[in-house]
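2024-03-11 09:14:02 INFO queue: dequeued item Glycosyltransferase, len=342
2024-03-11 09:14:02 INFO validating residues
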Amino acid sequence: MKFSLLIPVYNVENYLRDCLDSVISQVFDDFEVICVDDGSTDSSGKICDEYKAQYPERISVIHKVNEGLVSARRIGLKNAIGEYVCFLDSDDFIVPYFFEVLFQEIQSCNPDIVIFGYNRVDLFGKFVEEVSPPLTGGRYTLQEMSKIRDIVVSSDKLNNLCFKCIKSEIVDIDTDYTKYYSIRNGEDLIQSLPIFDKATTISVIKDCLYLYRSSPNSMTNSRISINNINSWLAMYSVLCEYAERWGYPESVYRQRFGIILKSIFSSLIINRYADAIHKKSEQNELLNRLMENDFQTALQLFRPKKLSIEQFYKYILIPKSRLIARISLVVLGDCYRWLKKY
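2024-03-11 09:14:37 INFO prediction written
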């Protein structure tokens, strides 16, 4: 078997048929599909079983209790038999020549990982934008791996597992990821880092093979929670570990904290008056969490550029004063509402 396609499924009955139809319409046929129903409470599990009944030699279904995306993917990996593994979120879909293009690239250079582009679409599947990998197309050897790792350490552009085709032998199948089951942000990067660490050859192609469905409930436009903050810090901790192993100075990889900082403040500011408004009690809980030692330590080690928005956010939180932070969020929220209005 050349490919295993892993599809974690949870309450996506409105999009799952689009996803599975795109899979069974592939022009290349040497692949298996493993759907992992993570305790869906809608008809998603039944839809998976329906497709399995129609395509028993192609699709297998695993039903399990709800434990989150990381758990579903790890179970899928343990049951995969393909030489390469790919990931597909159950509300997204792929182009008909997805496996054909990957197979041709693998035949030409036998890489450990193939990184490819994707098209962003709206909830109805309508094209929004084309997103290519943030690298020049071609083959990257071990001697050139720093070009890949530079991006992994400094940005979130190579986080997503769904835009990678990975040789099964470099996946850390036996690693226990139980402590990450509750993670809700950064789980893709946590699982990608060991893969990038083991890879000796990576192929980058500009073909957009994946159709990523954008949601209006993205992190920026929805309320954050304590779990979100804990998840970001867990991801950041793992990233720092690998960056240090790869020889990056602390002054470089600590800058990644700026992405986390912007995500937190964007949600808090935007949702001061949005539909997903944070209640006062929630704001207090979040601000208390941001004042705890682990977050404050990471914040102190972060060195933002002068006169940047990240420097302003850091300044708000460094005094460890909830009053300063609250007043700042109120003012910023008012400014955001005024700008949206005019």
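2024-03-11 09:14:37 INFO annotate: The radius of gyration is 21 Å.
2024-03-11 09:14:38 INFO item closed
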